[in-house]
Amino acid sequence: MYLYTDFDQQLVNERVAQFRDQTERYLAGKLTEDEYRPLRLQNGLYVQRYAPMLRIAVPYGLMNSKQLRKIAEIAKEYDRGYAHVSTRQNIQLNWPALVDVPDILTELATVQMHAIQTSGNCIRNTTTDQYAGVVAGEIADPRPTCELIRQWSTFHPEFAFLPRKFKIAVSALEEKDRAATSFHDIGVYIVKNEAGEIGYKIKVGGGLGRTPVIGSVIREFLPREDLIAYLDAVLRVYNLHGRRDNKYKARIKILVKAMTPEVFAEKVEAEFAHTREPLKIQPEFLAKMDAVFTPFDYQDLPDEDFTEIFAQYPKFKQWFNVNTNAHKVQGYRIVTINLKRAGVAPGDMTTEEMHFIADLADQYTFGELRTTHEQNISLADVPQKDLFVLWQALENADMARAHIGYITDIICCPGGDFCSLANAKSIPISEAITRRFEDLDTVYNLGHLDLNISGCMNACGHHHVGNIGILGVDKKGAEFYQITLGGNSDHDASIGDILGPSFAADVVPDIVEEILNTYLDLRQEGEEFIETYRRVGIQPFKERAYA
Fold first, then answer.
1. I need a surface site. Which of 44, 134, 271, 327 has the fewest CB within 10 A?
2. What share of the chain is helix, strand, coil (3-state, %, to 5)?
3. Which CATH architecture best describes the domain 6-109?
């Protein structure tokens, strides 16, 4: 992983000192709330319903064990003993005292972490596949591209005060997109041209929120050395033409739709003509970025035969088949640690659990871990010979439920329990559905299925792209929930269709169950939920849900 240079460290240290001064002046009444707001937002600090929330940057989801231990210590000393994995692969603290935030940032800086640009109208944390660099089939490792974007975008003076926030994702697999790349302001797809050269396909104008939009392709192939110049051109067009009179109309997706993708592309190409040469990335720098992410020194290990142990331990077999993924190196496996359990908000982990996960990363991998946008944790490089012992440790810690990618692996925002923007609570709905589908045989019979929950139209829980999406809405002061069907965030991206009028909280699990029973009655052999839905449409589900 990328490690700070002296320059990086100095930059972060100076930013911490600057923010400490800003916070002290605000607390002393020398800065107004309006003056302080943009300063705190660009340092990841929100004011939520009951307390501030600090969002810590995890660049493209990559962390080491030392960093996770530091967050665990901070959560214990300055918060309530837990932290939360966000859908942008960041980590959030929900209860820090404002006066303590500069001290927290000082602590984070000691392990090469910060909260810069995790909020505010700037370029946010770049995300990618949590299996980046270790999964077979990648056209190229996306992490050097992510790091390149991170270095270019951090403190970029031209794009520090954009019309609205701006998100970029990178995808490197043709068959699978684990980063919801089509729903980003810019989607960067690593591709090969006919000559075998590696470059990028660029999508723009994707996004969720009040107006969900699938991004449009504006460049089929961009040479690798031109990426920064092209991104700069896109941001310039957005910065120049993006609306600032209405925050709900200020996203690039609105601009691209208003201009049409074709006209937007023309304007980008015109800017690109000016930026291409001065911002061209030199080959030696590209080589340097690649070198940062050279593979670990893997052992020469055979693939394990688990036939006997599977027969003896069926739960281990389930976990292996569901919560682990093939690794491109023989003898290794990618493990996803489950952070979705009954009685726990999705994506939450306690101080003790963070120390535990850090220990596992040190013991069974190369001391690295990945946060996922599905709000779990992955250990990317586990020797197959250690999988059984690792599973036993996770089982004892209640972190081995074998349901990754199934209905109870729910993406869920903090909702009305924490967020001041929310119309309704999200976590209790997630809890009720989790308990309703506790039986794993039932879960497996339903097949792979994404269920996502948001507490408001900002869509932090990605409800638009869940196969089943649940959105909290306010009806005359009461909490109700709108359901959408047919969303999908993969390469065949789709936005969910609204089922009909919203439902009261207490009947949502019943409605979800009825939707799933409808699917079971209608599915053909081998069909997943999304396939059945696309074949039969919404009407059968509507009739059963409102019968």
1. 271
2. 40, 20, 40
3. Alpha-Beta Complex (3.90)
